[in-house]
Amino acid sequence: MRSGLIATLATVASPLAYASTWKKETQARSQASDTALLILDFQVGIGDQPYAKSAAQRAAAALKAGRAAGLPVVFSKVKFREGYRDIADSNKAFALIKTRNLIPPDASKLISTLQPGHDEIVVDKDRFCAFSGNDLNEVLRSEGIKHLVMAGVATSGVILSTFTLAADEDYSMTILSDACADPKASLHEELMTNLFPRSATVLTVDQWIASLPTNG
Asked: Which keywords does this chain's UniProt record carry (predicted)?
């Protein structure tokens, strides 16, 4: 009698356990299907600076994992018009770029370790925010993207600015803390610890990779 009851319970429990596992896997796949990985401003003159070296390496690991999980990937880079005609002298942050000719149009190139695949999108931008001066928002919306995973430099530049606009646009966000960097390390830590968690999940690259659904 006892053994028969145990066998019956096992028969019932097995489908329940399978259903629970299937639900979790389905939820993970659903989240992945509306997620895009944004690799922001890892370009020559920015992403190849000493402070960004480790972040670029971690971003490369995130890129490899994101591609393996089938996530759409978008790259951004700064690019201005010839003669910097899109930078006003009143723009304190960008006027220095103009006067010193720091990012001429023909120098707007991604670093060699973070290059797009043949079907991956690269958007040019003319301000800090990844959405500035391009159709990034329209591209993401057309693909049904609701969740942005971000890696980039600098933390106080493209990441902060993109985070702010994306929050206002009702995107959910994950920020990969060790795939971002800032010339001022203390500012990077302050943003990752006290500001970004207000509207985003902050994870290391390894933590994020562990959360990805496995293929098959």
From this structure: Hydrolase, Signal
Residues 127-157 as b/e (b if ≥16 CB within 10 A, e otherwise) read: bbbbbbbbebeeebeeeebebbbbbbbbbbb
Give residue 9's pLDDT: 38
Q: Output the pLDDT for position 154.
A: 97
Q: What is the pLDDT of residues 85-140, one digit of tens each?
A: 766 778 777 767 767 766 777 778 999 999 999 899 999 998 889 999 899 999 99
- What would the two tokens of residue 79 be? 């690019």
pLDDT band at 43 (very low <50, low <70, confident <90, very high): very high
Burial of 172 (0-12, 13-18, 19+ CB in 10 A): middle
Measured distance CA(132)–CA(151) in Å, rounded: 17
**In sequence order, what E strands does the chain have?**
35-40, 73-78, 121-125, 147-153, 172-181, 201-203
Those residues with Cβ within 8 angstroms of residue 84's Cβ, 6 or more apart along the chain or in another chain: 97, 98, 101
Asked if omega into 154 is within 30° of 0 (cis), the reply is yes
CB 183 within 8 A of CB 211: no
Q: Residue 172's closest CA among 33, 15, 34, 66?
A: 34
Give the number of C-alpha atoms closer than 13 A to the C-alpha of residue 143, restricted to the C-beta side: 22
Q: Exposure string (b/e) for 93-104, b if CB count within 10 Å is 16 or more?
A: ebeebbeeeebe
Look at 76 and 3; give whichever has higher pLDDT.
Answer: 76
